[in-house]
Amino acid sequence: MEKIIPIRNLRNAARINTLGGFYLGRRQFVTQNPELVRVFLEEADKVGEWAEKNPTEVAKAFAPELKLDVSVLEKVARRRTFRLRKLTATDRFIQLLS
């Protein structure tokens, strides 16, 4: 909408901890492969760090598939977090309420 008509943002999701996606691993696999899990998480976080530093490139990558203007997707990319975050007890509690 911001591209079509002038709007005033009354509320946004800043400082709201959204869960987003998450990774699950079987306890046995994680226990038997701690180095592999560590490397996977480090590399996934590096991708997230790159995405946060390159919102235009992220937007260009998704624009053809989503059929949205790059400038719109760039705004979306600038507003979100791509890096990994640990799931906290608060997050788990919110999941139970949902």
Properties at a glance:
single chain, 98 residues, mainly alpha, extended
Brief overview:
Helix content is 58%, strand content 0%.
Task: Give your account of this protein's structure.
The structure is a single chain. This protein has 98 residues and is an all-alpha fold. It has one domain (27-97). The chain is 58% helix and 0% strand. The chain contains five helices and no strands. Helix 3 packs across helix 4 (70-79). This is Aliphatic sulfonates ABC transporter substrate-binding protein.
Reconstruct the topology from this structure.
Blueprint: H1 27-32, H2 34-53, H3 55-66, H4 70-79, H5 89-97
Helix pairs in contact: 3-4
- Total separate domains: 1
Which whole number gives the mean pLDDT? 84
The beta-strand count equals 0
Beta content: under 5%
Largest sheet: none
Please give the radius of gyration in angstroms.
17 Å
Low-confidence stretches: none
The proportion of residues forming helix, as a percent range, comes to: 55-70%
What is the distance, rounded to the nearest whole angstrom, between the alpha carbons of the first and last residues? 28 Å
Helix/strand class: mainly alpha
Order of helices and strands: HHHHH
Q: Total number of helical segments?
A: 5
